[in-house]
Here is the input.
Amino acid sequence: MSLGGWAVFAAFWILFVTTPGPNAVNCIATGMRHGFSRALWGVLGILTQAALFLTLSGAGVSALLTASPSVFGWAKLGGAAVLIWLGLRGWRNAAVAVASQALSGGSIYRRALLIATINAKSVAGYLAAFSQFVEPEVPIGQQMWVIFPTALTLTALSYTGYTALGAWLGRMALGAVMNTRLRQGMALCFVLYGIALGLSALP
Here is the structure.
């Protein structure tokens, strides 16, 4: 990959991972509830999904997915249902004390991995990256040595920042009422993302 091609790819990826979506909302919510250090398990879950999707995109799997609209549509509806369910559960639990809901690092990791995997934005983003920015005249294996570290580093920086924002908001929202309102806001975002994802899957 040329230096110019890398710069264009990096600029696209920065926009891709900093645009707020389900992953960002989950990082903020997890940081609020569990603090920065423990919430980093969620960033690890997102990085796992990113590494997997980068590998699959390089192998052409995401292009195959989008070539079958019915399969992709059903996958989007399933993802929408999960996001709405997470949002409703988050709204219901917003007033429950955080200490009584302490999650293990493994639970935070699995939740983040699930949310990242069902996120249709991910499939679209990886497909765009590999259809628009990969140079066809250069072997994909050579380009992956540049794409992988660039994408994973930028992804880690972005979602670590969202996690830090959530931890800061958690410290600032000392009052029970404010803490509940913030957590309800995060839950509402999940529901809205789920509805938007579901609507995008309809013909």
